[in-house]
Amino acid sequence: MTSRSATMPYLPPQKRSHEQVTRWIQNVLLKLCRTWVAVRDAEIIGYAALDGDMLEHLYLRPDVRRQGVGTLLLDEVRRHSPDGVSLHVFQQNTDARAFYESHGFTVLDTNDGDRNMENLPDMTLRWTPNSAQ
Fold it and tell me: Acyltransferase among the record's keywords (predicted)?
């Protein structure tokens, strides 16, 4: 939740409690997705979750951004995705878009927000091994 509010202040307020998010992580995310967790000094500082070839989540604690942690997580995701990886990103999330584009992702489509619960315009990005820079 800290990452979400720090990096995407334009999102509507989170409607789920910490307990609801924790249950969702335990009962949905960890059961449906291949998940990698970044740990430093016994503290979780970020995670990535892959469902098939769709990167569903890549979040970092705000205080560890721009230290290479996101790149390490993304590299691990790509290593386990030999045919490529897709993801959705909010159009307003210019930092995330720049991060993914710097790692060889290209825009596949844009959407007016009808496919996400926040109802905000988003885009689909895709990386394939032969498009790597």
Answer: yes
